[in-house]
From TrEMBL:
Ranges for domain TonB-dependent receptor plug: 201-301
Residue spans crossing the bilayer: none
Native source organism of the sequence: Flavobacterium cheongpyeongense
UniProtKB keywords: Cell outer membrane, Membrane, Signal, Transmembrane, Transmembrane beta strand, Transport
Keyword Zinc part of the UniProt annotation: no
UniProt record similarity statement: Belongs to the TonB-dependent receptor family.
Range of residues in the leader sequence: 1-18
Pfam families with a match to the protein in the record: CarbopepD_reg_2, Plug
Designated name of the protein: TonB-dependent receptor plug domain-containing protein
Keyword Membrane included in the entry's annotation: yes
GO-annotated cellular components: cell outer membrane
């Protein structure tokens, strides 16, 4: 019987092997389709290990096997493939060849870079693989990366304002390919969005505002000059301290709590002409990102926000010139190759000439500024690039023969970028930044200088350890040189003697580690840690005080007064006066319900070691930077944010909503009547407290069509608390929470753009903010025949509601002209209904009537503007 069964089995097997079938395979065919062809023509069934993915493509070329026996077919299929077929009974078993080696080689890397016509990296471009229905976005260098099995794929590259690119790519090993995008002029005319695309619902990054120069140049502004910094005020969570004021406030934070970077180097002064213009020339800026929360671990040193501004790289192939001529300022930019495809340069200059009109009108006053931007790039082969960025800006301001002022920034950064591989790249940079302010009082015959200088380096590493895990890490450090003031006489008749306030020195260093981790298709995490250290260094004399208190409370008059020095401690040059260190954890996550909807959450702790000494709510050019030390502790922030993000109607509309809460320790405030200017013992007028802010931000956008724009609204509260140090002391505002100078309960902005035809487009911007908190006199008393005002509690009152409507029209005479001289006109009206917004309110006695009166100071009424812009 046993022999009969064996014979039957042999005959059955022989009949199976003798079957002739026809099978076709090719590089676009998934394994499941090959299985089906064989199973439909034979009695065989397939069995395979969990290493085999039947939806993947394993074949390298197209082959057709006609009228072939199954055994011969198996032998053919085993050639030049990463999988092994074998027949066991009436099953065909499939496994990886040399499983360990095959597993290591299972994935191949498809990577590359997306560049625009000027060879600038396109940040946030969408890279989509049709066959897998998956995609990624490019990073800040325009680089993307996939891990794929062998096969042929259709790659689609898209980005708003550019024509789509589509290309078939065969992956049999690691492949690198670059895409050069062509501008879609028609699309550029039609689109204004705040993120250049619908919101990225899967990215963990939240609480970030992005603007491109195409957007910024279409937002109406005072003086008709496009302004990158002031354009940020149209986005949620960002306010200013009033018209013609420098600085900006983010989520209730002060202006000195913003870290401003230009190509990675810090900038300490952000304005020209006392706030009328920002230091950023719109022509040379490539883009800017404002991080309000969920701040990546690579950034540190400030507790409110990070403004990361990048300059143009420059065209590697063609020479180009563009510029603009306005009513009070003009600008010019040139760019081109140093050596084609190897090196490029950008050189931009801007200047104002309002002072010339004043002289023609026999006006001895003067106000002017200039700035110069430069950037050089050179490619040392395919893996190395060196770059230099520089900025020089200066202001000159004179009021007749009364006083004169000059101030400005100098910045330079040299960087070396090296690619070790597609998975690992580094950026090493060294920088120098200098901010100087000079004030001369002519009737008193003296001048005063203060400066802050910093020298630093950064070394950043980006490491793609796996398809779903990215790692970045690095170190940085900078040395500070603070000169709070040098007072010197300008003539023998001056009543002032030479005086040098104590210079201060400090060293700040840090190391960070940051992970981006895709847990599932829906869940993405970003987490990291920053460790920062700060050293206050000598040489310096540090005063000592009775009972160790630099500020004392006088219960008789119910006021704070300067403490009495008892001596001083002398520190040698380089000796440590104070040392601080902090761990700064960061975490963020996003959970995508689908391709259009997600929720995100973030937490970050940050430390700030340097501060601006100012008892005004709007920072002035003369404000003094000072380091943390024996009497001033570092500010520490804990911020939490939760957001909801949605795209709908095929990304035509987007909605972003966020809740945030910020808590800041060691926020300083000033005693009443504090004297800041030229104070060598500033600790005698400051008290330590804390701050908090919380609120809701909404941003609704229309991304496509002839009419585009956005509506942003913020409902928030910003408060401080400076309690007394003992039960007897009142602190500030009786030790209770009081509004900070940056509180804006309501902040509404509506921005719209309408493309009427190729020649004409129209833009509008409406802004409305709650009035700024101020302290009013709530009465007065008479002493010695003089009216003495009596003031309310700190920031208990508000300025009137702030609002204005701005309109602009852009006229392009020859919109179809793409070569040679191209030009367009911009006509604008700032504050079209002439709202007299209050910059301040003062209380005085009328000299004629003796009555008390309130006086409003307004900076702007209606301001028309026109500019002619060109390129060739």
């Amino acid at each position: 019987m046993k022999h009969i069964i064996s014979a039957c089995f042999f005959l059955f097997s022989l009949s199976i092997f003798s079957q002739n079938i026809t099978v076709t395979v090719d590089q676009n065919m998934i394994l499941k389709e090959v299985f089906k062809q064989i199973e439909d023509q034979t009695d065989y069934k397939f069995a395979f290990t969990d290493q085999i993915n039947t939806t993947q493509k394993y074949f390298n070329q197209k082959s057709t096997y006609k009228n072939i026996e199954i055994k011969a077919l198996i032998n053919e299929l085993n050639k030049n493939n990463s999988i092994q077929f074998s027949i066991v009974g009436n099953n065909i078993f499939v496994k990886q060849k040399n499983s360990k080696a095959a597993a290591a080689k299972k994935k191949n890397k498809l990577s590359g870079q997306v560049l625009d016509e000027n060879k600038e990296p396109v940040i946030g471009a969408n890279i989509f693989i049709k066959e897998l229905e998956t995609g990624v976005t490019t990073d800040t260098k325009g680089i993307f990366s996939f891990e794929l099995n062998r096969g042929t794929y259709t790659v689609v590259v898209s980005y708003v304002g550019f024509k789509n690119k589509e290309k078939q790519i065969t992956v049999s090993d690691d492949v690198r390919i670059n895409f050069n995008m062509e501008a879609d002029s028609q699309q550029l005319e039609q689109v204004i969005v705040t993120n250049n695309k619908a919101v990225d619902v899967r990215n963990t990054q939240m609480s970030v505002n992005k603007l491109t120069m195409e957007e910024i140049k279409k937002i109406p502004s005072a003086m008709g000059e496009p302004d990158p910094l002031k354009s940020l005020l149209t986005l949620p969570g960002v306010t200013n301290a009033g018209e013609a004021s420098s600085g900006f406030n983010v989520r209730g934070g002060a202006a000195d709590q913003n870290l401003i970077l230009l190509d990675g180097a810090p900038v300490y002064g952000d304005s020209h002409m006392f706030g009328f213009f920002s230091v950023f020339n719109a022509d040379v800026v490539n883009g800017l990102d404002l991080y309000k929360g969920g701040i990546p671990s690579k950034f540190g040193g400030r507790v409110s926000s990070v403004l990361d501004v990048s300059q143009l790289t420059g065209d590697f192939e063609n020479y180009k010139v563009n510029g603009g001529i306005g009513l009070i300022s003009s600008r010019l930019l040139a760019q081109g190759p140093i050596k084609k495809e190897k090196g490029s340069f950008v050189l931009a200059a801007r200047t104002s000439y309002a002072h010339l009109f004043l002289k023609l009108a026999d006006n001895n006053n003067s106000a002017m500024f200039y700035d110069i931007n430069a950037k050089l790039n050179y490619r040392l082969g395919t893996n190395n690039t060196i770059a230099f960025s520089g900025y020089l800006g200066n202001d000159v301001f004179d009021i007749s023969d009364r006083f004169s002022s000059t101030y400005g920034n100098i910045m330079g950064i040299l960087s070396w970028k090296h690619n070790f591989s597609d998975n690992l790249n580094t950026n090493l940079s060294v920088f120098y930044s200098d901010y100087n302010f000079n004030l001369g009082i002519d009737p008193e015959n003296f001048e005063w200088d203060n400066t802050i200088k910093s020298y630093g380096f950064k070394y950043n590493w980006n490491h793609n350890t796996a398809e779903k895990l990215k790692l970045s890490y690095g170190i940085d450090g900078q040395y500070y040189d603070f000169n709070p003031g040098t007072v010197q006489p300008t003539s023998p008749d001056s009543q002032f003697n030479y005086k040098q306030l104590d210079k201060k020195y400090a060293l700040e260093s840090s190391a960070y580690l940051d992970f981006e981790h895709q847990i599932t298709e829906q869940l993405n995490l970003r987490y990291g840690l920053r460790y920062s250290m700060f050293y206050r260094l000598g040489g310096e004399e540090i005063s000592t005080y009775e009972s160790g208190q630099a500020v004392v409370y006088n219960p008789l008059y119910d006021i704070y007064q300067e403490g009495t020095p008892t001596g001083s401690i002398s520190y040698r040059s380089g000796e440590t006066i104070s040392k601080f260190d902090n761990l700064e954890p960061r975490a963020a996550l996003s959970y995508a319900f689908n391709d259009n909807t997600s929720v995100k959450a973030s937490y970050n702790r940050m430390a700030q070691y340097i501060h601006i000494l100012s008892n005004t709510q709007s920072p002035l050019p003369m404000n003094i930077w000072t380091p943390s030390g024996p009497f001033t502790k570092p500010q520490l922030l804990d911020q939490y944010a939760l957001g909801y993000f949605k795209n709908f109607k095929e990304d035509e509309y987007s909605l972003e909503g966020e809740l945030f809460y910020k808590n800041i320790q060691n926020r300083i405030d000033y005693i009443d009547g504090a004297d800041i200017l030229a104070n060598n013992n500033i600790e005698q007028v400051i008290l330590n407290g804390k701050a908090r802010s919380y609120g809701l931000e909404l941003l609704f956008r229309k991304n496509t069509g002839n009419f585009t724009g956005w509506i942003s609204y913020t409902l928030s509260r910003a408060e401080q608390k400076t309690p007394g140090r003992t039960p007897e002391e009142p602190g500030v505002a009786n030790g209770n929470w009081y509004l900070s100078g940056y509180d804006k309960l309501h902040n509404l902005n509506i921005v719209g753009s309408y493309l009427y035809n190729p020649k004409w487009s129209f833009n509008a911007n409406f802004s409305l903010q709650s009035g700024q908190p101020v302290t009013y006199a709530n009465g007065y008393y008479e002493f010695g025949g003089i009216n003495i005002p009596n003031f309310s509690l700190r920031n208990e009152n508000r300025l009137p509601l702030y609002h204005h409507l701005d309109l602009a029209a852009t006229y392009t005479p020859k919109p179809d002209k793409k070569k040679g001289w191209q030009s367009y006109w911009v006509f604008s009206i700032y504050n079209i209904y002439n709202r007299q917004n209050a910059a301040s309110m003062t209380f005085a006695t009328n000299e004629d009537t003796g009555a008390n009166e309130t006086r409003r100071l307004s900076i702007f009424g209606m301001v028309p503007g026109v500019s002619y812009n060109f390129k060739f």
